[in-house]
Prior knowledge:
This protein is of the alpha+beta class. 45% of the residues lie in helices and 15% in strands. The protein contains 3 helices and 3 strands; from the N terminus they run H-E-H-H-E-E. The longest helix has 18 residues, at 5-22. It is globular and about 30 Å long. The two termini are 22 Å apart.
Amino acid sequence: MTATDEPRELVRRALRLLAEKRADIWVNKGEIWPMVKRLDPTFELNEHGFTSFSGMLKALPDLIEVRKGEHDQQVRLK
């Protein structure tokens, strides 16, 4: 297991759940972190080498796509 396996899987699960709930593949970036913490309350960014949630998302360019939304960046699974 690499350092990004657990974050990758949590982001994948969070995006799938949020997209299903919203009936839209694009999810506001601000909604993802709370869902990640609901899925795994013990998850800590620094334990996986990240100083911010944005930094963690940037480390997953093969998993997600980011675009500018009306009020926040929006993210979807590739």
